[in-house]
Design a protein that fits this description.
Layout lengths: L1 E6 L5 E6 L2 H9 L14 E2 L1 E5 L6 H11 L5 H11 L1 E2 L4 H9 L8 E4 L2 H9 L4 E3 L9
This protein binds zinc ion.
Zinc ion binds next to loops.
């Protein structure tokens, strides 16, 4: 079983259990997953983003500043992340580990991770931010 943090088309965040990542994909494609708050079936995995480098650079400082400015700035955060970080999709946990353990050069990445991956990364001391990002279609 795998726990995913999900987001509906209205930006509600919730968690749901699936047999596997494929189980999630299948159910999501069939519209079988609905938001517990509003019933919306337009559900996507919440974005887990981005990894903070071990040696904090200017990028990290700028990002932290944007984050503390509050939710109305989330669109700006998203634009910043997309412009400055590499999208690694559902390989976020895997890629963050490779960077953390020095297997690949450090860089800023963003992508999706399950709640289990997030917990495991925290235990391993891998820095990342959990970032609820509004969808582009939010008005
Ligand atoms: Zn909802």
């Amino acid at each position: 079983m795998i726990l995913f943090e999900l987001k509906c088309g209205h930006g509600h965040l919730f968690e749901a259990w699936f047999n596997s990542g494929e189980g999630y994909e299948t159910q999501a494609a069939a519209g079988a997953i609905s938001c517990p708050l509003c019933g919306d079936t337009d559900v996507t995995k919440a974005i887990m983003a981005p990894r903070i480098r071990r040696s904090a650079g200017a990028a990290d400082e700028k990002l932290k500043k944007l984050l503390v400015q509050g939710h109305e700035k989330l669109a700006a955060v998203r634009r910043y992340v997309e412009a400055n970080c590499d999208y690694v999709g559902n390989k976020f946990a895997e890629e963050a580990r490779r960077i953390h353990y020095g297997e690949v050069p450090a860089r800023d990445i963003y992508g999706e991770a399950s709640s289990e991956d997030a917990a495991a990364m925290s235990e391993e001391g891998i820095g990342f931010l959990r970032l609820p990002v509004p969808s582009r279609t939010d008005s």
